[in-house]
Amino acid sequence: MSKFEPNIIAFLCNWCSYAGADLAGTGRLKYPPNVKTIRVMCSGRVDPMFVLKALKEGADGVLVSGCHPGDCHYVNGNMYARRRFAVLKKLLEYIGIEPDRFQVSWVSASEGAKFAQVIDEVTESVRALGPQKKLTKVGFDE
Amino acid sequence: MSDIEGNIQAKVKKLLEDGMIKYFIGYESGSDPLHTTPCFIKKAEDVDKIVWNPFCVNNLVGYLTDDKKREIKKDEEKKTKSIGILVKGCDSKSLVQLLSEHKIEKNEVVIFGVSCNGVINPKKLEKLLNGKSIPLDSLTLQSDGKNYIVTSDKKKYSFPKDKIEMDKCRDCTQPNTLIYDEFFGEKIKTDAKKDYTAVEEIEALPLEKRWEFWSDQFAKCIRCSACRNVCPVCYCKECAVDSADLVITPQTTSVEKANKMPWLEKNVELAENIFFHLTRMMHIAGRCINCGECERACPMNIRLSLLTKKLEKEVKGMFDYEAGIDVEAKPLLSIFEEGDPGEFIK
Predict the structure, then answer these.
(1) Which positions 4-63 of B are in contact with A (Cβ < 8 Å)?
(2) Can you tell me the distance from the alpha carbon of B256 to that of B244, in angstroms, rounded to the nearest whole number?
(3) Helix/strand/coil for B287
(4) CATH second-level architecture of A8-129?
């Protein structure tokens, strides 16, 4: 347990957060390598089932990141996402899942530095929580 | 009570004789005096079967969408006639929800509204009756509305109303049917407020205690899907949690595989159960009207109403939205406001 490295799944929207991650890369910004990125076309594409499935398959934390409100490439996909995840977050907390297991952020294409910082924060908060066992299916091995 | 029953029977008889409805969905006596069971009256001579009493617990609205699923196959006679249905106040909210989602159209149903004093939870009453080993002959609500009088072998026993009625009736804000074509009984006035104490008690627990409670609940689940099947707003022909049924053969195309993601595995274990229940909750968020059918149908007595109540509370609190009130309303998760809560977002 001395060195627990969290496994984090990040759903990044193609137009803002993924480009932001790209910018962080081209800008040679350093951020923890714990995040596995899944590119989706819009944060509105992310079904709550994606999040639950990731946790079920053994993710220690899940991050959904999209464009800032008003900046969505599809005009308002992220606004729908915001509603959906507000409800999901309340439900997860209600059944006793640590709130930091599931996080949402807005990162624009120009915010490479913010992306690195968000990943930093998410990784640190999930690391502090330790391995996620509650929602992970039996028989999952590291 | 009996004159409501009589009036309903007379009206159904008339509508069936005139050919206005193809059948009527109501309640008939069950196999024991503590239960009623849904019935489908197709012939005018069968109307005597219809009963209306405090044991009419089921939400019948779900049968309307079941009907649609069947009718898709035989298209001809469909749509020519509407369906008569008896709808209590609480159930009428799920009917309004289905109307607002255009799952049913108003001209497809003849709604029999009724005023309801609350329905009895047979499990609770059974417990009390077994304690005194009383067989039930008849049951009446006392005129002050506080106690039920059970008559058995010419002796009378009184049970307080709030001890034996369904939990949902304790804070009922909708004793009268919301929209109706015919109304039976006298309208009841109520100033009841939604009571979220049970939810708040859980919210107040520390995280690990909450997890303890809910993991105990979800571990009981045998994933029989009774909660989904009984739910009036869970009407999808293809359900995300059924996707495990896909058998992959060499002929299975990648499209089929992609469309039938195995979200859920068949084994019954805590993680899969939680996935099932949370997914269901997300799918009915802003659509669930808290009729309590899922909890009633659950063979393992999982406290699903605590989840649906929580949904209702959060949806009201965060978006000031209530399901099943307005036929014109848009579903909660397909609309948004600029000022939706976003403080959880980094």
Answers:
(1) none
(2) 12
(3) coil
(4) 3-Layer(aba) Sandwich (3.40)
pTM: 0.91
pLDDT in tens, B150-186: 777 677 778 888 888 888 888 888 889 989 998 998 8
DSSP, res B176: B
Task: Give domain limits for chain B.
Answer: 2-119+175-184, 122-164, 197-334
User: Distance (Å, rounded) from C-alpha B53 to C-alpha B340?
Assistant: 43
Nearest alpha carbon to residue A126 among A61, A63, A62: A61
Hey, which residues 246-285 in chain B have their CB within 8 Å of chain A?
A: 263, 265, 269-272, 274-275, 278-279, 281-282, 285
Interface probe for A, chosen from B287, B302, B306, B336 (most Cβ of A below 10 Å), is: B336
Burial class (CB in 10 A: 0-12, 13-18, 19+), B78: middle
Cβ separation of B210 and A98 shorter than 8 Å?
no
ipTM surpassing 0.90:
yes
Across B263-302, b (16+ Cβ under 10 Å) vs e yields bbeeeeebbbbbbbbbbbbbbbbbbbbbbbbbbbbbeeeb
